[in-house]
Amino acid sequence: MKKIVYCLIALVMLLSCVVTGCGKRPGSAGEVNVYNWGGPYIDDSIFSVFERETGIRVNYSEYQSNEDMYSLMRMGGTNMDLVVPSDYMVARLIDEGMLEQLDFRNIPNFKLIDDAYKGLEYDPLDKYSVAYMTGTVGLIYNSAMITDKIVDWSALFDPRYTGQILMFNNPRDAFGIALSHLGYSQNTINETEIREAYDLLVKQRPLLQAYVMDQILNKLEAGEAAIGPYYAGDYLIMRENNEDLAFVRPNDGSNMFVDAMCIPKGADNKKNAELFINFMCRTDISLLNMEETQYASANTEAAKKFGADMDPDDYEIMFASDETLANCEVFIHLPNEILALYDQLWVELKK
Asked: How far apart are CA 89 and CA 86, in angstroms?
């Protein structure tokens, strides 16, 4: 059930800001080019609010994976002022000198971000990023098509579901699942373990209907596939369109992620991007984005308000407990030689 009450709270706060001009910075103008994950990962009604308050036009584009976003940045042919990579990719971009240091004088609302999402391993000094949303990965399946109890990743490698299985279309998530199922760390740098995971993915390939990212939403909602791995927030939205869908976090381990707002090196509109980050950190805007995405905001006040009256099962999906998170890993930035191995094996797998 949608959190209508909290959406109304956010709208009241938002209208108050529009009337009183809170957050308005006279003299701001121009544009900001925002690149974010595809799917419902932002409430696009907020763009007009930001423009009214600042005079800055938002140009919004989407990508489907961290690797797609990285490739766009490496090509350098796209004007990107703000991107929203996940934890491990933030660290890689920092390591490769691809991000601007943030001027927090333009981001005073950083104080609203929960301390749990500050000083993390991928950006320990909080110089390059501000946390946006957080969540976990699990298995989404159609309980009318799969009547067995699903408890671990083995369902993705089960020949009984041949032609009905979807798999992540990016190497880090796909290998992460295989490594977890084999009992290895998703962050292993042991080449033998990684090649063992590759062998498992090779065996899985004939069972698959498709490698997908955002397409999983339509395929599972429409009953065109029976099972696939994806993000918890998307499940809560997908379930509204197909009540047969179920969600489980595999007991053989999963991924917990933090997506963060960053500014690419050489961005044409750096200050405008910082003003947009500041806007995104506000409680009213965070509430609207949570309502749209069903992911947990890094804004402490917004997360508390939104989660206060949720159904306990839905709350655990959106705001995973410490016990659940203890069985999850956060991806870390891997050495270059391991990244090269992933790239090589992924190309071979997809031939």
From this structure: 5
Domain for residue 83, yes or no? yes
Q: Residue 294: which of 317, 277, 323 has the closest Cα?
A: 317
Its domain, for residue 153, covers 135-256+322-350
Q: How many independent structural domains does the chain possess?
A: 2
Q: Decide: helix, strand or coil at residue 113.
A: strand
In a domain? residue 119: yes
Q: Answer yes or no: are the C-beta atoms of 65 and 169 closer than 8 Å.
A: yes
**Residues 148 and 120 both lie in one domain:** no
CA atoms within 13 A on the CB side of 13: 18
Cα separation of 238 and 252, whole Å?
A: 24
* Domain contains 317: no
Give the β-pairing of 82-83 and 30-37.
Answer: parallel
Q: What digits encode the pLDDT tens for the residues 56-97?
A: 999 999 999 999 999 999 998 679 999 999 999 999 999 999
**Are 44 and 14 within one domain?**
yes
pLDDT 10s digits, 181-207: 999 999 999 999 999 999 999 999 999
Q: Which two tokens stand for residue 284?
A: 């009213």
